[in-house]
Amino acid sequence: MMASVLPLAAYLLLTLLLAVWVQRRARSGASKNIVEEYFIGGRSMGGFVLAMTIIASYTSASSFVGGPGVAYSLGLAWVLLAMIQVPTTFLTLGVLGKRFAIIGRRLGAVTITDFLYARYRSDVVVILCSMALLVFFAASMVAQFIGGARLFQAVTGYPYEVGLILFGVTVVVYTAVGGFRAVVLTDALQGVVMVVASVVVFMAVLEAGGGMEQSIQTLKAIDPGLITPSGAGGQVPAPMLFSFWVLVGLGILGLPQTTQRCFGYKDSRSMHNAMVMGTLIIGFLLLFMHLAGVLGRAVMPGLSSGDLIIPSLILEFLPPFWAGVFVAGPLAAIMSTVDTMLLLVSAAIIKDLYIRYSLKNDASRISPKKLARMSFGCTVAAGLLVFAASFNPPELLVWINLFAFGGLEAVFLWPIILGLYWKRANAAGAVFSILIGLTVFIFLSVFKVPLGGVHAIIPTLAFSFVAFVAGTHFGEPVSPEIRRLFWDEE
Amino acid sequence: MKKIFKQADREAYITLGLYAFFFLWWTLFAFGLGSGDPDEYSYVFGLPAWFFYSCVVGYPVVTLILWLVVRRWFADIPLDDIDAGENTQKEGDDA
Questions:
Q1: Is residue B90 part of a domain?
Q2: Is residue B87 part of a domain?
Q3: B90 interfaces chain A, CB cutoff of 8 Å
Q4: pLDDT tens digits, residue range B73-90?
Q5: Which of A50, A35, A40, A43 is nearest to A279 (CA)?
Q6: How does pLDDT run across A224-276, given as a tens digit for each residue?
Q7: Interchain pair A31, B95: CB under 8 A
Q8: Do A106 and B87 touch (CB under 8 A)?
Q9: Secondary structure element (H or E) that encloses residue B48, with its range
Q10: Are the CB atoms for A258 and A50 separated by under 8 Å?
């Protein structure tokens, strides 16, 4: 048992040291602006770090445990579905990257809500978005912590709580101490760990199954559906597959945890490099992890739940020390999602709510030192709340998490896209779109309205789009000042 | 700056074009080769051909095209406003 915990502990320690190092270096750099430094790292990310932080914030427990688990049950169809996410990095950066970077610098924006406020000048938009972000992120973070602690328990044999304390404390401490710089740098490290882990698990299962050809034939003998694009028992119908081109395809342009990265990179060249590297790396990860789940079926056909496949493969085919090294992969995926969300929750409270409303959007009303202390304190407090909730997870949060991904898209997608690319879009449209989107999405999801395999996100985004256009029709026209700020119109 | 926004928009359209290409590649290979009876599948490196082409080949292909497209059509534009410096960084100029 000890052997598998040691490498993991060493890895966690390394992330902590990295955070302290980053924080010291940043302090000696004497930054001009506390908020921009802590929440966006002074807009200094290079290509590799940018690529890795988008991937790492995006890929979570579901890419490493849940996704391969479903692939185990349904076969190659689920790998096909996972590959829809290959364009995540290049789509985010290509569509939003440069406009966000330019406008973000003009406004001093560090969060998506900053951007939305500058575009719509509406307190209702700010409050709705901040609340949605706080609720959905809190639920997602608790779910990630639970997933991580269960995985830790399965692989090391230590109790759930030990794992939770180990990596929960680590992630809260390094995020609070190092801010954005520590988050993205540890994301880069964690991305590398994820890549290595995925290759090793894949190689192990491939060898155990007697090579690719034999594994696939074994699968075909178990159930021919496992090697078709419609999945075992036809459980991946085409309407569902194509819905995912919206849910984890175009819809990701509405996820604040990845789109916010567009504010933080150094120059155009970093963005170009990140697009290519990010696509290469995320495709690799998705392919190998999900394929490992499918091939796992040929090696261990009798598992009671698909979710067990990755931990079981690690335990069965890797010696304890290496199991410890490679359980770090999924844990890295989890921590790198939680750290981003945690910092954005803190940014929502400090920047979007406290500075905007309590300080009348003028941070110079309190000393930079006090502001830095408050940002730190806020991150720690939010982290500890999530951490505490994960010991005995409230039903409500676990339940909300099921809707977090689509819910964020329902709130943020149209206000972001139409705000950037439709000059007439105004606050009335945005508010109307958010309210209708959330209502439709929650209604369809909670009552499980049958849609013939189509995911609830499709009607949701259709309704919220119409609501946006209709609302804009009744709202105030966009002021010349905003048109100048966003499109350089005279 | 207006010219820069125009360039950014052009890059956004190119990105969407490539996205559409990946979508078509993924769809045509997966359903073109994979819709039939599994007993009649052909295989490449032990994998069903539909899967090999749509997933294993599709993603490196799109990465390669992306690399070419970015080199060829994406411009190294400045992200800071040179003329609008006074608008930015209102809060706390000095630590």
A1: no
A2: no
A3: yes
A4: 999 998 887 644 444 443
A5: A50
A6: 999 999 999 889 999 999 999 999 999 999 999 999 999 999 999 999 999 99
A7: yes
A8: yes
A9: strand B47-48
A10: no
Of how many residues is chain A composed?
Answer: 490
Domain of residue B24: give its range. 2-75
- Domains by residue range for chain A, with CATH: 2-401 (1.20.1730.10)
**B47 beta partners:** B44
Nearest-neighbour CA in chain B from A189: distance (Å): 22
Chain A hits for B74, Cβ within 8 Å = 268, 272
Note the pLDDT tens digit of each residue in B41-50. Answer: 999 999 999 9
Is A105–B8 a contact, with Cβ atoms under 8 angstroms apart?
A: no
ipTM score for this prediction:
0.91
Compute the nearest-CA separation of A389 from chain B (Å): 35
A32–B81 CB contact, under 8 Å: no
Give a yes or no: residue B17 inside a domain: yes
Testing the interface with A: which of B9, B15, B52 to mutate, by most A Cβ within 10 A?
A: B15
Any domain includes B82: no
| Residue A276 to residue B45, Cβ atoms within 8 A | no
A364 vs B94: CA distance, rounded Å:
10
Are A90 and B15 an interchain contact pair (Cβ–Cβ within 8 Å)? yes
CB A51 within 8 Å of CB A278: yes
How many other CB atoms are found less than 10 A from the CB of residue B43?
15
Of the candidates A64, A151, A93, which has an alpha carbon nearest to the alpha carbon of residue A336? A64
Tokens of A41: 């790292």
Total domains present in chain B: 1
Helix (H) or strand (E) holding B44: strand B43-44
- Closest to A263 (Cα-Cα) out of A411, A125, A115, A128: A115
CA distance B51 to A47: 31
Residues of B in contact with A228 (CB under 8 A): 34, 38, 48
Q: Do B79 and A101 touch (CB under 8 A)?
A: yes
Within chain B, how many helices (H) and strands (E) appear? 3, 2
Give the number of other CB atoms < 10 A from CB of residue A149.
25
